[in-house]
Amino acid sequence: MTPLDTASLAAQLAALPAWTHHPERRAISRSFRFANFAEAFGFMAQMAAVSERLDHHPEWFNVYNRVDVTLTTHDAGGLSERDITWAKAADGAYAGCASRGA
Ligand code: H2B
Description:
By secondary structure, the protein is an alpha+beta fold. It contains 3 helices and 4 strands, in the order H-E-E-H-E-E-H. The protein has a domain at 26-95: Gyrase A, domain 2 (2-Layer Sandwich). A 4-stranded antiparallel β-sheet has the order 1-2-4-3, with helices on one face. The protein is globular, with a radius of gyration of 13 Å.
């Protein structure tokens, strides 16, 4: 597992405007808000299945209708293609949520 080089990472992050890059942590993060806990947990269930399929797992934190996600690739010691794939899948799942919160 190899981390993305600076140029590829910049190009990939341009397609993920809702995510924040934390260079010092070699990670990206995004906070998702939903209408309620059921919607938030539905998103988590969906992304849990994606995580198993990709063999790539998030660091995440949930309180009621909020899910804070941090992605990094421990095996690569930085951000890899898998983080980008996961982030895009999460953006897609979130866009498909019936009732997103404010
Ligand atoms: N998820 C994340 N986010 N980073 C990893 O380095 C990682 C993972 N490694 N999921 C995988 C599982 C590894 O532990 C297994 C053995 O493939």
